Amino acid sequence: MSTEASDRNLWDSVRPYLEKESLAAFFLGVSSGFPYAMIGATLTTRLAQDGIDKKTVTAFTLAFLVYNLKIFWAWLVDGVHLPLLGRLGQRVSWMLLAGSLVMAAVANLALVDPSADLGATVLAAVLVGVAGATFDIVIDAYRIETLKPYQLGTGSGMSQYGWRIGSAGAGALALFMAARSGWSAAYLACALFALPAMLTALILGEPERHREPTARKGVGEVIASIIGPFGEFFHRHGAWLVLLFILVHKVGDTLANLTFRLLFDDLGFTNDEIAIWDVGVGFWAYLIGVFIGGVAYAKMGLKRSVLLALVLMAVSNLSFAALAAAGHSNLGMAGAIGFENVASGYGGVVVVAYFSALCDLRYTAAQYALISAAASIVGRFATGTTAGALIEGMGYVNFYLLTTVLALPGIVLFWWMSRSGLVDAAMGTAGEEGSDADPFA
């Protein structure tokens, strides 16, 4: 291969990441990640430093449940036209409103004193969760409708890059500011992380692919607007099998992922070793996986790239079975963490791209809220109710072998859906090729 051809192939791989739609997805991801950090590790650290007991601190994680409930109000983002702001467009106006609500909620959390009024702090954290979930609904809809079908893989990757940077950046800024100016100033500074998504919407304007749903006038029409997005989805050929795949595809992976720290502790790894191998190697391996996922989606297409992702995520669980059998091994930990994060980064891109393509452009917000909620609920429930007992009953090696087996139904189901044509038959308008095809292909 000539040097010129090699350079052209390299440019073809990098070019999609530099297109304005992909860059927009990155900035949207930055704003999407920061509210999660505000009620996650950052709030945990703040409460601990204020002397709140551990049981109360861990109870604050219930604020995350709001993200799983967003399906119940996602239809508002599709169907309710905002006065005054609505002149800017449906998606832009909601982006500005949701972003403002997040900033206000974070500012409210900044001004409460956990040691003086724990109840007010609980309410403030839940309000951040509600505002952050609403912001996510708008951001996901804007991203999907801005990206052309051939950009869904790259755009999903850029969004995940942004999410990681927004989450980690907000958490780091909060710790830096808290040490110098106190927690109130830290939270107020972090509220500015809502601006990238808001400015992106103002600069790019209303997404070209946005489709307005049928206008609503009476009570019956409003009710129809609530159930319409779900009715449209389930009327597609094979929709129930697609939903089954969404529900089961990540059960094994979720069961495994949420138990890694338990394994490391029982194998005797120190905090320094965990920081180096799990946090350090894992972070960079994940970013590499995200990049590979974007390229693979563009080169291999949706069906083959998703099937490969499912296989890789299943095999990654075997690496932890091997680590559990080998015992304390830094090399083994680095290998298991590296492989798992590359697989997760790759899988996150192509699977999110597939889920994005399932949306009807008239109901993007409501349908993606349904899909994203369904994708995590079974795994989280199974982990919370059975993981600890399974590990105690069968040991780590057999547990991770079991999580690998639990991943097989998702692989087989998607393979069958691909062979039978159900993947294409159940596709939404967001994934349809046509005038949006890659002009450089």
UniProtKB/TrEMBL annotation:
Annotated GO MF terms: transmembrane transporter activity
Membrane topology summary: Multi-pass membrane protein
Keywords: Membrane, Transmembrane, Transmembrane helix, Transport
SUPFAM superfamilies (alphabetical): MFS general substrate transporter (SSF103473)
PROSITE patterns cross-referenced by the UniProt entry: MFS
Transmembrane feature ranges: 21-39, 59-80, 92-112, 118-140, 185-204, 239-262, 274-298, 305-327, 333-356, 397-417
Family: Belongs to the major facilitator superfamily.
Protein name: Major facilitator transporter
